[in-house]
């Protein structure tokens, strides 16, 4: 394939899931059940302040997304599992990017790009913990990030 003449203002370089803190209660109902359709899963989202540094002729950004989950039995209202999942992403841009575009790309689009990776980690963790029918729904992370402003901090 040939190279495209169109280049995005910001490039997604890499990511990592850098925190998983997950636990499942060791009660008989959880261990013996094959079907957890009577469970309710709640998700809360957190957005980390982005960090920016200059590396040669590029600007480098680090941003992140945190998703907290809680799995509760609808019958007993007991919490069956809980977890915290954090993804951090590395992005780069050319020096001279417009401030408003930079803020949108780093603080809103960055977490939206990271969401599928966190979603996959949550789904896999729930599956291996015995909650095989639970798949995290798609959510509009971009809109959530817009409504939860974060800052871009310069680091040296």
The radius of gyration over CA amounts to 19 Å
Annotation field: number of helices: 3
Number of domains: 1
* CATH architecture level-2 label: Roll
- Total strands: the figure is 5
Largest sheet: 5 strands, mixed
Structural class call reads alpha+beta
Helix-strand sequence: EHEEEHHE
* Percent in strands: 35-45%
Kindly state the percentage of residues in helix: 25-40%
In the CATH hierarchy, the third-tier topology is known as Bacterial Protein-export protein SecB
N/C terminus separation? 38 Å
**What is the averaged pLDDT score?**
86
Q: Could you list the spans in which at least 5 consecutive residues all have pLDDT below 50?
A: none
Shape: elongated
Strand arrangement in the largest pleated sheet? 1-4-3-2-5
CATH class: Alpha Beta
CATH homologous superfamily title:
SecB-like
Structure in words:
A 5-stranded mixed sheet has the order 1-4-3-2-5. The protein contains 3 helices and 5 strands. It is elongated, with a radius of gyration of 19 Å. A hairpin with a 5-residue loop joins strand 3 and strand 4. The protein has one domain: SecB-like (Bacterial Protein-export protein SecB, Roll). The model has no long low-confidence stretch (mean pLDDT 86). It is an alpha+beta fold and 156 residues long. The N and C termini lie far apart (38 Å).
